[in-house]
Amino acid sequence: MNIHQKYILRSIELGKKGLGTTAPNPMVGCVIVHHEKIIGEGFTSPYGGPHAEVNAINSVENKSLLPEATLYVTLEPCSHYGKTPPCADLIIKHNIPAVVIGIKDPHDKVAGKGIEKLEAAGCKVTVRVLEDECRAHLKRFLTFQEQKRPYIILKWAETADGFIAPDPNLRKSNPEPFWITNPYSKQLVHQWRSQEQAILVGTNTVLEDNPKLNTRDWVGKNPIRVVLDRDLKIGSSFHVMDGSVKTLVLTQIEDKSKYLNGIDYEVIDFSKPVAKQICEVLYKHSITSLLVEGGSKTLQTFIDEGLWDEARIFEAEKFFENGIQAPRFIGKLLSEESILSDTLITYAHG
User: Fold this and answer.
1) Where would I find the CMP/dCMP-type deaminase domain in this sequence (predicted)?
2) Rounded to an integer, what distance in angstroms lies between the CA atom of residue 155 and that of residue 296?
3) Cα(169)–Cα(173) distance, integer angstroms
């Protein structure tokens, strides 16, 4: 590992501290080095706040060292005014002579313009250092920019005999959610919820389980709730309609008099590919990542349309013998780990 890789790796570590708070901005990390000593570090503030480069520069106690320093950053510094001024301008203002960048920013307002601005000011710019690692770290932002859709994570729990839910007849006598996994797996899912911008379920999951879809078992922000409700069957008594969390309902009903106050609605055509339309709506709402929690039909819709990036599957030791079968898919195995009695298996698409 060379010196540039060392400090870009540290920048990635710093960037991870922004997971779940920066969206729709990317979670960028930045390190400032003077004579092989780190003199400043920073990562992207929660959305609307300063970018990583600003925080790193502000953290430098002796700013007279900056004209002899090198700035390392996972993503190309911005060159445009958004919620904050351009980071490239700040780097130039402090006469930082060298900038090392993990990857170029594909955002159409940046896309090389930040690099051009730095070079025009006499800054030496090095690009594509640990590019693969930076792409993996910034996967949510990059998927949103390059594919015009959120990064999609499918999640479900299944029994040892391959069922995602018990026989529907059993639900009539016991409408409460039936937990397949143990409490530690459940808590991990709440951590995941805090890391993603939105969470999605179908109508049947709401009607049968009445989920809250929040992060009550983990410290962190609640994701935006996205609910498929073709015929507006879900009434105001359900948790997802309580207005406590921003909620977006996708329906075919255009009559706005049937919409609930405090809930956002978007009309889609359920006779056409649904997952594709969901992605289009979420892109319009600047949602960069989505956790799809069910049910089986909803999950299978994303799989069949090829619109998913990760699948996180809990396999438990329970047996149903009968019930709703887990989704069927083909993916590339990424990891497998034990969570007490459960096994968490993670796949990548393709």
Assistant:
1) 2-126
2) 10
3) 8
Cis peptide before 24 (omega within 30 of 0): yes
Q: 224 φ, ψ to 5°?
A: -65, 130
* Residue found by looking up tokens 């359900």 in the block: 238
CA distances from 165 to 113, 187, 203, 318, 349 (A): 51, 19, 15, 11, 24
Q: How many CB atoms lie within 10 A of CB 264?
A: 14
Q: Can you say how many angstroms the Cα of residue 326 is from the centroid of all Cα atoms in its chain?
A: 24
Tell me which residue of 7, 310, 31, 309 sits closest to 130, measured CA to CA: 7
Q: Would you give the DSSP letter of residue 83? A: S
Ramachandran assignment for 287, one of left (phi > 0), alpha (psi -120 to 50 degrees), beta (any other): beta
Rounded Cα–Cα distance for residues 190 and 219 (Å): 9
Enumerate the active-site residues.
Answer: 53
Preceding peptide of 29 cis, ω within 30°: no
| Mean pLDDT in consecutive groups of 10 residues from the start of the chain, 350 residues | 95 97 95 97 95 97 97 91 81 97 85 89 96 98 96 96 82 65 96 98 93 93 97 97 97 97 97 98 98 94 98 93 92 97 95
Containing 297, the helix (H) or strand (E) segment is helix 296-304
8 A C-beta contact, residue 8 and residue 99 = no
In this structure, what are the phi and psi dihedrals at residue 292, rounded to the nearest 5 degrees? -95, 115
- Residue 78 gets which letter from DSSP? P
- Helix and strand counts by DSSP (H, E) for the chain: 11, 16
pLDDT score recorded for residue 79: 81
Question: Taking a C-beta distance cutoff of 8 angstroms, is the pair 344, 337 a contact?
Answer: yes
Q: In what order do the strands lie in the sheet with 310-315?
A: 264-267, 247-251, 224-228, 198-201, 289-294, 151-158, 310-315, 342-348, 332-339
How many CB atoms neighbour CB 255 within 10 A? 8
Strands (E), 92-243: 98-103, 124-126, 151-158, 163-166, 198-201, 224-228
**CB crowding 207-234: b at 16 or more within 10 Å, else e:** ebbebebbbeebebbbbbbbbbbeebeb
pLDDT of residue 157: 96
